[in-house]
Amino acid sequence: VCLANLRHPKNHLLLLEAAATLKNTHPDWTFHFIGKDHEDQYSADVKSTIEELQLENSVYIYGLREDVNHILGQAAIGVLTSSSEGLPVALLEYGFNKLAVVATNVGEIPNIIKDNGNGFIIPYDAPDKLYAALSKLIDDADLRQKFGIALHQTIIEHHSEKAVIEKYINWIIKI
Q: Fewer C-beta within 10 Å: the chain N or C terminus?
C-alpha cells in the first residue's frame, strides 16, 4: 500500500520501477495507491508508466478513500517513496495499523523509522534498494510482523494523541 496523493514529491515512479521487477519474482503481490489524484501531468505519467511496464494487474489507483483503515487492515507492507517530505501522516497510519514499512530517508521519516529496527530506510532514488527491501519483507512474514509491532510501539510512545498531549503539557509546565 502506498498512501500518497498523486503528485511529484511522493515519487510513485520509484515504486513502479520496483513493482515491475517484483511482478516477475513475486507475482502474487499487488500495490495499491490511495490518495488524491490531481489529474495533472504527473498523474498522467504515473498511469502511462503503469501501462508501459504492464502493471495493470499489479498496481491499482483508488483516489481519495474514507475506508483507509479498512484497506490498511488488509495490507502487509506500507511504502513511502517520497523525494521530499515533512512528517507523513501515512507513516503514522501505517504504524497504528502495525504494518511493516519501507520508506525513503527524507524529512522526519528517519526520526521515526530506525533502519532494520522498525522498518527499512532507503535512498529516494534507489529502485534496486527498494526492490531488495520489499523482497526481504515479502519473503519473511516474521520480519514483517516484528517491524509492524516495533513501529506501532514507536508511534504509540511518541506520536499518539496521548503521547502528544503529555509532551505538550510537559512543555507548558516548563514555561
A: C
CA angle 116, 34, 155 (to 5 degrees): 40
pLDDT means per 10 residues, the chain with 175 residues, are 84 96 96 94 97 97 92 95 94 96 97 98 97 98 98 94 86 86
Question: How far is the C-alpha of 148 from the C-alpha of 82, rounded, in Å?
Answer: 20
The span from the CA of 26 to the CA of 39, in Å, is 30
Q: Which whole-number Å values give the CA distances from 89 to 5, 29, 61, 66, in the listed order?
A: 12, 24, 19, 15
Residue 91 makes CB contacts below 8 A (sequence gap 6+) with 78, 80, 101, 103, 109, 112, 113
Please tell me the predicted confidence (pLDDT) of residue 168. Answer: 84
**What was the pLDDT predicted at 99?**
98
Q: Give dist(CA 73, CA 24) in Å, integer.
A: 26
Distance of CA 98 to the CA centre of its chain: 12
In this prediction, residue 167 carries a pLDDT of 84
DSSP-based three-state secondary structure for 98: coil
Among candidate residues 154, 56, 166, the one with its CA nearest the CA of residue 109: 154
pLDDT of 105 reads 97
Q: CA separation (Å) from 97 to 7, 91, 131?
A: 24, 10, 23
